[in-house]
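Recap from last week: sequence in, structure out.
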Amino acid sequence: MKNNITISDYSKLLGHLYEGHIEEHPYSNFLASLREIMELNFAAINLREPIGSDGGLMFISSDLLQKTYINPHDHPYIDRYYTSNLMPNLPWGEVVTLDGVTSYNSLESSDLYKICMEPMDLYHMAGIDLRNANGQRFTVRICRPKTAPNFNTEERQFFGELGSHIQRAVATGMQLIQLDTERRLYAKTISGKSIGIITLDEQGKVLNCNLAADEIIANKDGISLVNQQIYANNPSARSKLNGYIQEIIAAQRAGNLPPVNALSVERSSNMPDYEILIKPLAIERIVESVQTPHMMIFINAPEKKNEIDIRMLMSLYNLTRAEAMLARHLAAGESLGDSANLLGIARNTARAQLRAIFSKTGVTQQSMLVSLILKSLATFH
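Predicted C-alpha coordinates:
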Protein backbone atom coordinates (compact mmCIF):
# COMPACT_ATOMS: atom_id res chain seq x y z
CA MET A 1 0.00 0.00 0.00
CA LYS A 2 1.12 3.55 -0.63
CA ASN A 3 3.34 4.84 2.15
CA ASN A 4 2.40 7.85 4.25
CA ILE A 5 -1.23 8.23 3.20
CA THR A 6 -2.20 11.79 4.06
CA ILE A 7 -5.51 13.15 5.28
CA SER A 8 -5.78 14.84 1.89
CA ASP A 9 -5.41 11.47 0.12
CA TYR A 10 -8.08 9.88 2.30
CA SER A 11 -10.40 12.88 1.93
CA LYS A 12 -10.05 12.74 -1.85
CA LEU A 13 -10.80 9.02 -1.82
CA LEU A 14 -13.97 9.48 0.25
CA GLY A 15 -15.03 12.43 -1.87
CA HIS A 16 -14.88 10.28 -4.99
CA LEU A 17 -16.79 7.54 -3.16
CA TYR A 18 -19.69 9.70 -1.97
CA GLU A 19 -20.01 11.38 -5.37
CA GLY A 20 -19.65 8.13 -7.27
CA HIS A 21 -23.35 7.66 -8.01
CA ILE A 22 -23.53 10.88 -10.08
CA GLU A 23 -20.60 10.07 -12.39
CA GLU A 24 -21.16 9.04 -15.99
CA HIS A 25 -19.36 5.80 -15.13
CA PRO A 26 -20.36 5.36 -11.47
CA TYR A 27 -17.58 5.01 -8.90
CA SER A 28 -14.85 5.05 -11.55
CA ASN A 29 -12.89 7.84 -9.83
CA PHE A 30 -13.21 6.12 -6.46
CA LEU A 31 -12.00 2.78 -7.82
CA ALA A 32 -9.09 4.46 -9.61
CA SER A 33 -8.08 6.30 -6.42
CA LEU A 34 -8.40 3.10 -4.39
CA ARG A 35 -6.14 1.30 -6.85
CA GLU A 36 -3.55 4.05 -6.53
CA ILE A 37 -3.57 4.12 -2.72
CA MET A 38 -3.59 0.35 -2.24
CA GLU A 39 -1.38 -0.37 -5.26
CA LEU A 40 -3.94 -2.55 -7.02
CA ASN A 41 -4.25 -3.57 -10.63
CA PHE A 42 -7.97 -4.34 -10.30
CA ALA A 43 -10.92 -3.10 -8.23
CA ALA A 44 -14.62 -3.78 -8.71
CA ILE A 45 -17.95 -3.07 -7.08
CA ASN A 46 -20.68 -5.50 -8.03
CA LEU A 47 -24.10 -4.13 -7.10
CA ARG A 48 -26.21 -6.84 -8.68
CA GLU A 49 -25.24 -10.40 -9.50
CA PRO A 50 -26.16 -11.88 -12.89
CA ILE A 51 -29.32 -13.97 -12.69
CA GLY A 52 -30.76 -15.66 -15.76
CA SER A 53 -30.88 -13.20 -18.64
CA ASP A 54 -29.96 -10.31 -16.34
CA GLY A 55 -26.24 -9.65 -16.70
CA GLY A 56 -26.13 -7.79 -13.39
CA LEU A 57 -24.47 -4.48 -12.61
CA MET A 58 -20.72 -4.21 -12.05
CA PHE A 59 -18.24 -1.33 -11.98
CA ILE A 60 -14.69 -2.33 -12.89
CA SER A 61 -11.39 -0.46 -12.84
CA SER A 62 -8.16 -2.13 -13.96
CA ASP A 63 -5.08 -1.57 -16.08
CA LEU A 64 -6.71 -3.37 -19.00
CA LEU A 65 -10.38 -2.69 -18.38
CA GLN A 66 -12.36 0.35 -17.23
CA LYS A 67 -16.04 -0.23 -17.70
CA THR A 68 -19.53 -0.33 -16.28
CA TYR A 69 -21.36 -3.54 -17.10
CA ILE A 70 -25.14 -3.38 -17.14
CA ASN A 71 -27.17 -6.39 -18.30
CA PRO A 72 -25.48 -7.62 -21.49
CA HIS A 73 -23.24 -10.68 -21.24
CA ASP A 74 -20.39 -9.37 -23.35
CA HIS A 75 -17.28 -10.40 -21.45
CA PRO A 76 -16.09 -13.72 -20.01
CA TYR A 77 -15.44 -12.13 -16.63
CA ILE A 78 -19.16 -11.42 -16.36
CA ASP A 79 -20.36 -14.62 -18.01
CA ARG A 80 -18.21 -17.02 -16.02
CA TYR A 81 -17.17 -15.24 -12.85
CA TYR A 82 -20.16 -16.35 -10.82
CA THR A 83 -20.08 -19.94 -12.02
CA SER A 84 -16.58 -20.34 -10.61
CA ASN A 85 -16.44 -17.64 -7.93
CA LEU A 86 -13.83 -18.61 -5.38
CA MET A 87 -15.09 -16.14 -2.75
CA PRO A 88 -18.91 -16.38 -2.67
CA ASN A 89 -21.11 -15.27 0.23
CA LEU A 90 -18.45 -13.89 2.54
CA PRO A 91 -19.37 -13.01 6.14
CA TRP A 92 -21.05 -9.61 6.19
CA GLY A 93 -18.60 -6.73 6.52
CA GLU A 94 -15.50 -8.89 6.99
CA VAL A 95 -12.44 -8.64 4.78
CA VAL A 96 -11.39 -12.03 3.45
CA THR A 97 -8.35 -12.76 1.30
CA LEU A 98 -8.33 -15.44 -1.35
CA ASP A 99 -5.60 -17.47 0.33
CA GLY A 100 -7.87 -17.72 3.37
CA VAL A 101 -10.48 -19.49 1.26
CA THR A 102 -8.42 -21.63 -1.09
CA SER A 103 -4.82 -22.53 -1.78
CA TYR A 104 -2.90 -20.88 -4.57
CA ASN A 105 -2.47 -24.32 -6.18
CA SER A 106 -6.26 -24.66 -6.36
CA LEU A 107 -6.52 -21.12 -7.67
CA GLU A 108 -4.11 -21.71 -10.52
CA SER A 109 -5.97 -24.83 -11.60
CA SER A 110 -9.41 -23.16 -11.56
CA ASP A 111 -11.34 -22.04 -14.64
CA LEU A 112 -11.79 -18.60 -13.11
CA TYR A 113 -8.05 -18.08 -12.90
CA LYS A 114 -7.25 -19.47 -16.33
CA ILE A 115 -10.06 -17.70 -18.18
CA CYS A 116 -10.44 -14.42 -16.33
CA MET A 117 -7.67 -13.74 -13.85
CA GLU A 118 -4.44 -14.89 -15.47
CA PRO A 119 -4.96 -12.92 -18.72
CA MET A 120 -5.43 -9.78 -16.60
CA ASP A 121 -2.57 -10.68 -14.22
CA LEU A 122 -4.89 -10.94 -11.21
CA TYR A 123 -3.58 -13.15 -8.42
CA HIS A 124 -3.87 -11.84 -4.87
CA MET A 125 -7.48 -10.99 -4.03
CA ALA A 126 -9.32 -9.49 -1.08
CA GLY A 127 -13.05 -9.05 -0.79
CA ILE A 128 -15.81 -7.72 1.40
CA ASP A 129 -19.55 -8.33 1.14
CA LEU A 130 -21.89 -5.48 2.11
CA ARG A 131 -25.60 -4.59 2.05
CA ASN A 132 -27.31 -2.00 -0.10
CA ALA A 133 -30.26 0.23 0.86
CA ASN A 134 -32.66 -2.68 0.35
CA GLY A 135 -30.61 -5.04 2.48
CA GLN A 136 -29.39 -6.99 -0.55
CA ARG A 137 -25.84 -8.25 -0.85
CA PHE A 138 -23.30 -6.44 -2.98
CA THR A 139 -19.59 -7.14 -3.19
CA VAL A 140 -16.28 -5.33 -3.48
CA ARG A 141 -13.21 -7.14 -4.80
CA ILE A 142 -9.63 -5.88 -5.13
CA CYS A 143 -6.64 -7.61 -6.72
CA ARG A 144 -2.89 -7.44 -7.21
CA PRO A 145 -0.60 -9.18 -9.70
CA LYS A 146 1.31 -12.34 -8.90
CA THR A 147 4.58 -10.42 -8.56
CA ALA A 148 3.13 -8.12 -5.87
CA PRO A 149 2.88 -8.94 -2.15
CA ASN A 150 -0.33 -10.30 -0.66
CA PHE A 151 -2.55 -8.07 1.47
CA ASN A 152 -1.11 -7.64 4.96
CA THR A 153 -2.94 -7.01 8.22
CA GLU A 154 -2.73 -3.22 7.98
CA GLU A 155 -4.09 -3.24 4.43
CA ARG A 156 -6.94 -5.57 5.34
CA GLN A 157 -7.83 -3.30 8.25
CA PHE A 158 -7.79 -0.23 5.98
CA PHE A 159 -10.02 -1.99 3.45
CA GLY A 160 -12.41 -3.11 6.20
CA GLU A 161 -12.77 0.39 7.62
CA LEU A 162 -13.36 1.70 4.13
CA GLY A 163 -16.09 -0.93 3.70
CA SER A 164 -18.45 0.88 6.08
CA HIS A 165 -18.09 4.03 3.97
CA ILE A 166 -18.68 2.07 0.76
CA GLN A 167 -21.86 0.55 2.19
CA ARG A 168 -23.13 3.95 3.36
CA ALA A 169 -22.24 5.68 0.08
CA VAL A 170 -23.90 3.03 -2.09
CA ALA A 171 -27.05 2.99 0.07
CA THR A 172 -27.30 6.79 0.01
CA GLY A 173 -26.56 6.92 -3.71
CA MET A 174 -29.30 4.41 -4.50
CA GLN A 175 -31.82 6.35 -2.42
CA LEU A 176 -30.90 9.64 -4.09
CA ILE A 177 -31.21 8.09 -7.54
CA GLN A 178 -34.62 6.70 -6.61
CA LEU A 179 -35.78 10.05 -5.24
CA ASP A 180 -34.56 11.84 -8.35
CA THR A 181 -36.40 9.33 -10.54
CA GLU A 182 -39.60 9.89 -8.56
CA ARG A 183 -39.13 13.66 -8.76
CA ARG A 184 -38.72 13.53 -12.53
CA LEU A 185 -41.80 11.34 -12.85
CA TYR A 186 -43.80 13.73 -10.67
CA ALA A 187 -42.58 16.75 -12.65
CA LYS A 188 -43.52 15.05 -15.91
CA THR A 189 -46.94 14.16 -14.52
CA ILE A 190 -47.90 17.63 -13.31
CA SER A 191 -46.54 19.26 -16.45
CA GLY A 192 -49.30 17.59 -18.44
CA LYS A 193 -52.18 18.59 -16.16
CA SER A 194 -54.87 20.90 -17.55
CA ILE A 195 -54.82 22.80 -14.25
CA GLY A 196 -52.12 25.44 -13.96
CA ILE A 197 -49.64 24.69 -11.17
CA ILE A 198 -47.15 27.28 -9.91
CA THR A 199 -44.64 26.88 -7.08
CA LEU A 200 -43.47 29.89 -5.07
CA ASP A 201 -40.42 30.39 -2.85
CA GLU A 202 -40.27 31.81 0.68
CA GLN A 203 -40.66 35.35 -0.68
CA GLY A 204 -43.64 34.51 -2.85
CA LYS A 205 -41.63 34.55 -6.07
CA VAL A 206 -42.26 32.04 -8.83
CA LEU A 207 -39.97 29.02 -8.96
CA ASN A 208 -41.66 26.79 -11.52
CA CYS A 209 -44.76 26.61 -13.70
CA ASN A 210 -46.24 23.67 -15.53
CA LEU A 211 -47.30 23.98 -19.17
CA ALA A 212 -50.88 24.92 -18.33
CA ALA A 213 -49.71 27.71 -16.01
CA ASP A 214 -47.27 28.98 -18.65
CA GLU A 215 -50.16 29.21 -21.11
CA ILE A 216 -52.38 31.06 -18.62
CA ILE A 217 -49.64 33.57 -17.83
CA ALA A 218 -48.79 34.08 -21.50
CA ASN A 219 -52.43 34.88 -22.31
CA LYS A 220 -52.46 37.72 -19.71
CA ASP A 221 -56.19 37.23 -19.36
CA GLY A 222 -56.55 38.43 -15.77
CA ILE A 223 -53.30 36.89 -14.50
CA SER A 224 -49.73 37.73 -15.47
CA LEU A 225 -46.20 37.61 -14.11
CA VAL A 226 -44.58 40.82 -12.81
CA ASN A 227 -41.15 40.84 -11.16
CA GLN A 228 -41.30 37.05 -10.74
CA GLN A 229 -44.57 37.36 -8.82
CA ILE A 230 -48.11 36.36 -9.74
CA TYR A 231 -50.10 39.48 -10.61
CA ALA A 232 -53.90 39.67 -10.78
CA ASN A 233 -55.14 42.49 -13.00
CA ASN A 234 -58.27 43.07 -10.94
CA PRO A 235 -57.30 45.29 -7.93
CA SER A 236 -59.59 43.49 -5.48
CA ALA A 237 -58.38 40.04 -6.53
CA ARG A 238 -54.78 41.26 -6.51
CA SER A 239 -55.13 42.48 -2.93
CA LYS A 240 -56.64 39.17 -1.83
CA LEU A 241 -54.04 37.09 -3.65
CA ASN A 242 -51.11 39.07 -2.24
CA GLY A 243 -52.66 38.97 1.23
CA TYR A 244 -53.07 35.18 1.14
CA ILE A 245 -49.47 34.70 -0.04
CA GLN A 246 -48.10 36.99 2.68
CA GLU A 247 -50.25 35.20 5.26
CA ILE A 248 -48.63 31.88 4.34
CA ILE A 249 -45.14 33.41 4.40
CA ALA A 250 -45.70 34.93 7.85
CA ALA A 251 -47.12 31.69 9.27
CA GLN A 252 -44.22 29.61 7.91
CA ARG A 253 -41.63 32.00 9.34
CA ALA A 254 -43.34 31.89 12.73
CA GLY A 255 -43.52 28.10 12.63
CA ASN A 256 -47.32 28.14 12.61
CA LEU A 257 -49.69 26.10 10.47
CA PRO A 258 -50.42 28.19 7.36
CA PRO A 259 -53.98 28.32 6.00
CA VAL A 260 -55.23 27.14 2.62
CA ASN A 261 -57.09 29.88 0.75
CA ALA A 262 -59.06 30.20 -2.46
CA LEU A 263 -60.36 33.03 -4.61
CA SER A 264 -61.67 33.78 -8.07
CA VAL A 265 -59.98 36.16 -10.49
CA GLU A 266 -61.93 38.10 -13.08
CA ARG A 267 -60.73 37.83 -16.67
CA SER A 268 -60.63 40.62 -19.24
CA SER A 269 -61.91 38.26 -21.95
CA ASN A 270 -65.22 37.86 -20.09
CA MET A 271 -64.57 34.12 -19.90
CA PRO A 272 -65.51 32.45 -16.59
CA ASP A 273 -63.35 33.61 -13.68
CA TYR A 274 -60.19 31.70 -12.90
CA GLU A 275 -60.55 29.52 -9.81
CA ILE A 276 -57.41 29.78 -7.68
CA LEU A 277 -56.26 27.72 -4.71
CA ILE A 278 -53.21 28.75 -2.66
CA LYS A 279 -51.80 25.81 -0.71
CA PRO A 280 -48.79 25.99 1.66
CA LEU A 281 -46.21 23.22 1.64
CA ALA A 282 -44.55 21.56 4.61
CA ILE A 283 -41.04 22.96 5.00
CA GLU A 284 -38.16 20.95 6.47
CA ARG A 285 -35.89 23.70 7.75
CA ILE A 286 -32.79 21.54 8.11
CA VAL A 287 -32.69 20.88 4.36
CA GLU A 288 -34.25 24.11 3.15
CA SER A 289 -32.60 26.00 0.31
CA VAL A 290 -33.42 29.15 -1.62
CA GLN A 291 -34.96 26.94 -4.31
CA THR A 292 -37.29 25.13 -1.90
CA PRO A 293 -40.99 25.53 -2.83
CA HIS A 294 -42.98 27.05 0.04
CA MET A 295 -46.42 27.08 -1.55
CA MET A 296 -48.31 26.02 -4.65
CA ILE A 297 -50.90 27.94 -6.61
CA PHE A 298 -53.46 25.95 -8.59
CA ILE A 299 -55.29 27.82 -11.36
CA ASN A 300 -58.34 26.31 -13.02
CA ALA A 301 -59.97 27.71 -16.15
CA PRO A 302 -63.56 26.39 -15.92
CA GLU A 303 -64.10 26.43 -19.67
CA LYS A 304 -61.32 23.90 -20.19
CA LYS A 305 -62.58 20.36 -20.21
CA ASN A 306 -60.22 17.53 -19.46
CA GLU A 307 -59.42 15.51 -22.53
CA ILE A 308 -60.43 11.92 -21.96
CA ASP A 309 -58.40 9.36 -23.85
CA ILE A 310 -60.64 6.94 -25.74
CA ARG A 311 -57.98 4.23 -25.61
CA MET A 312 -57.68 4.63 -21.84
CA LEU A 313 -61.41 4.03 -21.39
CA MET A 314 -61.29 1.04 -23.71
CA SER A 315 -58.36 -0.47 -21.82
CA LEU A 316 -59.61 0.25 -18.29
CA TYR A 317 -63.18 -0.95 -18.73
CA ASN A 318 -62.99 -3.23 -21.78
CA LEU A 319 -65.29 -0.91 -23.73
CA THR A 320 -65.72 -0.96 -27.47
CA ARG A 321 -64.64 2.17 -29.30
CA ALA A 322 -68.27 3.24 -29.76
CA GLU A 323 -69.01 2.73 -26.06
CA ALA A 324 -65.88 4.66 -25.06
CA MET A 325 -66.83 7.59 -27.30
CA LEU A 326 -70.28 7.75 -25.72
CA ALA A 327 -68.79 7.53 -22.23
CA ARG A 328 -66.44 10.41 -23.03
CA HIS A 329 -69.31 12.67 -24.12
CA LEU A 330 -71.29 11.82 -20.99
CA ALA A 331 -68.29 12.54 -18.76
CA ALA A 332 -67.89 15.91 -20.50
CA GLY A 333 -71.38 16.88 -19.32
CA GLU A 334 -73.44 16.07 -22.39
CA SER A 335 -76.86 14.47 -22.01
CA LEU A 336 -77.53 11.06 -23.52
CA GLY A 337 -79.62 12.64 -26.27
CA ASP A 338 -77.06 15.31 -27.10
CA SER A 339 -74.30 12.69 -27.08
CA ALA A 340 -76.27 10.55 -29.53
CA ASN A 341 -76.75 13.54 -31.84
CA LEU A 342 -73.07 14.48 -31.69
CA LEU A 343 -72.06 10.90 -32.46
CA GLY A 344 -74.64 10.56 -35.23
CA ILE A 345 -76.36 7.53 -33.72
CA ALA A 346 -79.96 6.78 -32.77
CA ARG A 347 -81.02 7.30 -29.17
CA ASN A 348 -81.99 3.66 -28.87
CA THR A 349 -78.47 2.73 -29.95
CA ALA A 350 -77.05 5.13 -27.36
CA ARG A 351 -79.27 3.58 -24.66
CA ALA A 352 -78.10 0.08 -25.61
CA GLN A 353 -74.48 1.21 -25.48
CA LEU A 354 -75.07 2.86 -22.10
CA ARG A 355 -76.49 -0.39 -20.71
CA ALA A 356 -73.37 -2.20 -21.94
CA ILE A 357 -71.18 0.46 -20.33
CA PHE A 358 -73.05 0.06 -17.02
CA SER A 359 -72.53 -3.69 -17.15
CA LYS A 360 -68.80 -3.41 -17.84
CA THR A 361 -68.05 -0.65 -15.32
CA GLY A 362 -70.28 -1.96 -12.54
CA VAL A 363 -72.28 1.26 -12.10
CA THR A 364 -76.04 1.63 -12.28
CA GLN A 365 -76.56 5.35 -12.90
CA GLN A 366 -75.26 7.88 -15.39
CA SER A 367 -74.05 10.16 -12.58
CA MET A 368 -72.06 7.27 -11.10
CA LEU A 369 -70.49 6.62 -14.50
CA VAL A 370 -69.41 10.25 -14.85
CA SER A 371 -67.91 10.19 -11.35
CA LEU A 372 -66.03 6.97 -12.10
CA ILE A 373 -64.56 8.28 -15.35
CA LEU A 374 -63.50 11.60 -13.84
CA LYS A 375 -61.79 9.82 -10.95
CA SER A 376 -59.95 7.65 -13.45
CA LEU A 377 -58.98 10.76 -15.37
CA ALA A 378 -57.60 12.39 -12.23
CA THR A 379 -55.49 9.30 -11.59
CA PHE A 380 -54.11 8.67 -15.05
CA HIS A 381 -54.18 12.05 -16.81
